[in-house]
Amino acid sequence: MKKIIRAIGMILALVTITGMGTLCLPTQTVSAAATSDSSIDTWMPDKNLQKVIYSGLHDLSQSANTAGGYNTTSVNQITPAMLADLRYLHVDTTDITDLDGLQYATGLVQADFSNNSISKLPSVMPGGDNLYSLNIGNYALVANSPTWVLSSKVSFKNSTTTYTDLNYGFAGQTVSGTYLPSEDVINYSTDKKSATISFSKLFKGFKQSDGSYKDVTPSISIKYSSNDHLAPVVNTDKKQLELDLSQVSAATTVQIQFAVSASDTNASYSTWDTLNFKVPETDATVTDPVSPSEPTQLTDIKPLSQDNTNVIASKVTALDHFMVNTMMTDSGIYSGYMTEAQKASVDTDNDMFSQITESAGLYLETLAMRGDATAFDNYYTQVKKTFSNGDGAFYWMYNTRTKDYKQGNASLDDLRIMRALTMMQAKSPSAARASEIKDLVTGFKKYSLLNGKMIDGTDFADGTKEPAIRLDYLDMQELKYVYGEGGWSQKDYDDQLKVLENAYLGDSFPWYQTYYYYGDMNGYKAGEYSTLPEAKGEVNSIDSLLVILHLAQIGKAQPASISWIKAHVHNRTLYNNYYTDGTPVEKNSAASSYAIAAMIASTVGDKTMYNDCVQDLNDSQVPDGYGDFSGCLGDIPSKKSATYNNLTALLAYYY
To answer: Which InterPro entries does the entry mention (predicted)?
Structure first.
């Protein structure tokens, strides 16, 4: 818990207090901040207080120096040392607002500023142990008020009407307002399945004159809880709130609005506010680790691209040349084609300068499929330099113009990079690569898993984990390898496979749902599926094709899905978006859909389907004669070409 019990003067902010306290607080020693050479304006800025001090030093009965009074002719002659001789101050003005400098009156016995509205006080109590009484007039307690204002020797009329952030009251005072506790007030059980909040964390008691707190059991009630499964209980016997977390998914944000009231002789306290916290992950012990697998198991397909006359070497080379020479920079790959004029123009949308780990992973996969270990390791070094967060994960986006990073990772991209490393390791083992994989597995657990399940990713800035997974992220083949390397639960792996398989829409339209929710989020409940949240009722072909590819890689693809894709690829009717009944939203197609379909065809060994896909990719390629736009898959009139289309096509040529 963040420390709430601090010096009183540092936390008395925004709570209504009426009356006067009788707290006896320790006095402090005045430090010699001012010298006899210092101008009085530097250590006593209030001109009206200067006049009162000047008058007091000339009053023979009020000063105790041997001369019986100071024969000064100007306030500018007053030094801090002179103030030590003051015993009493008679204040006949109402214009003093700042008592700074009065701390040098170390012998002060009595002073009364009751008709003044004081806004500034010295950090040390004037008079110290010599002080009998000091009235500081109308004074508004604030967060940084010095603690000595609550001494029994000091009186004032508190002019502040609202306070906040106190979990205690004062003897003889009325305190009300709001108290906002931090998540640290919660005490979690070892298994994180339950939690308690002690009453004393919400109300410490009434502070007494000796600085102790009188324990008074408050009345606490829960006004509202944002999660129906939480069912908070107020246990008066044990003096604690009790929270059942067993039915609430980890990372779910919970709000509890509570009210607290307490009373004692001549004192009362009342507050209400809302406690916000995220349900923590459980610290489960893995008793059923996934059996380790070998990197070679990720490269056991027989690529249909080999010795295939449809895969034309010149087209593959032209596409690769476009990616390396036109799209690639020292930091990464642009997400879309730009002319040199667009790159130089300040009017070009900044988003065009974004580079993402999705592109990095796809190109690394291509190099791994190609078996080029040197090029792979050199490019991975570049990827790590640009995107690594230094802790086993990658920022998912970097902008070369703004130099900004998106503060978080995309778990699919991290997993794809690991897949590429694993594939390359199978073809050309390397100790350095093995070490990288180990580090990324550790980072994957920290940033891409929640209670053992893969999620979309983590916000690096605040550690937020959203309890949901976009289903095309679940590369079950690479996940099996990663879970085996990490020693993680077989049940967690199997549960994710069930999530994937249960997202199937049916044989009549063999596509898949888009999202699955482990916890309440975006209006969905834990255990629910959804299509695209931004376009409810629609499914995107890329999402479903990737799901089918990942299932095909472990021999789990639905036969109806393969047949459906094969027919629509052959007829060139594989469209971008569909409603859940199979009706196209619009009859537009993307080269990436045919590229992923080619990977599926190669994975299941369907040469006819693979060739149909490759033929579409070949037909989409820009021929020679268009400068640096040549070789890409793009639209010639508009000079538009998306990197995702190009990289998936390039990868498909090696499948």
So the answer is: 6-hairpin_glycosidase_sf (IPR008928), 6hp_glycosidase-like_sf (IPR012341), LRR_dom_sf (IPR032675)
In the DSSP assignment, the letter for residue 88 is E
**E-assigned strands of 477-581?**
515-517, 529-530, 538-540, 577-579
Domains of the chain with CATH codes: 18-159 (3.80.10.10), 178-278 (2.60.40), 295-652 (1.50.10.10)
Q: Contact, 211 vs 245, CB < 8 A?
A: no
Question: What is the three-class DSSP state of 464?
Answer: coil
Tell me what pLDDT residue 13 has: 31
Element (H, E) at 138: strand 133-139
Q: Is 468 helix (H, G, I), strand (E, B) or coil?
A: strand
Nearest to 640 by CA among 349, 295, 371, 409: 349
* Share of residues in the chain with pLDDT > 70 (%): 91
Rounded Cα gap, residues 422 and 594, in angstroms? 25
pLDDT bin (cut points 50, 70, 90) of residue 66 is low
Per-residue pLDDT, 571: 96
C-beta of residue 126 within 8 angstroms of C-beta of residue 102? yes
Pair 53, 103: CB distance under 8 Å: no
pLDDT at 25 over 70: no
Phi first, then psi, for residue 87 (nearest 5°) are: -115, -40
CA gap 113, 242 in Å, rounded: 50
Half-sphere exposure of 249 (CA within 13 A, CB side): 21
| Residue type (1 letter), 36 | S
The pairing of strands 538-540 and 577-579 is antiparallel
Query: In which band, very low, low, confident or very high, does the pLDDT at 283 lie, cut at 50, 70 and 90?
Result: confident
Backbone conformation region of residue 468, classed left if phi is above 0, alpha if psi is from -120 to 50, else beta: beta
Angle between helices 313-322 and 643-652 (to 10 degrees): 150
72 touches 33 (CB < 8 A): no
Residue carrying structure tokens 């579409």: 616
- Is pLDDT above 80 for 306? yes
Residue located via tokens 């070409």:
641
Q: Given pLDDT bands bounded at 50, 70 and 90, which one contains residue 160?
A: low
Residue 524 C-alpha from the chain's centroid = 21
Average per-residue pLDDT for the chain = 89
Nearest to 480 by CA among 303, 301, 289: 289
Confidence of residue 519 (pLDDT cuts 50, 70, 90): confident
**Beta strands of 334-373 (E only): which ranges?**
354-356
Amino acid at 187: N
* DSSP strands (E only) in 113-215: 117-118, 133-139, 154-158, 163-164, 168-170, 174-178, 187-188, 194-198, 205-207, 213-214
Residue 82 · residue 57 · CB < 8 Å: yes
Report strand pairing: 449-450 vs 88-89: unpaired
Looking at residue 29, its pLDDT comes to 45
Q: How many CB atoms lie within 10 A of CB 371?
A: 15
Q: Are 72 and 96 in contact (CB under 8 A)?
A: no
| Residue among 185, 186, 259 nearest 224 (CA) | 259
Strand-pairing partners, residue 578, are 539, 584
Give the β-pairing of 154-158 and 133-139: parallel
pLDDT reported for residue 90: 86
pTM for this entry = 0.71
The residue type of 181 is P
Q: Are 504 and 512 in contact (CB under 8 A)?
A: yes
| Digit-coded pLDDT (tens) for 379-419 | 999 999 999 999 999 999 999 999 999 999 999 999 999 99
Amino acid sitting at position 202: L
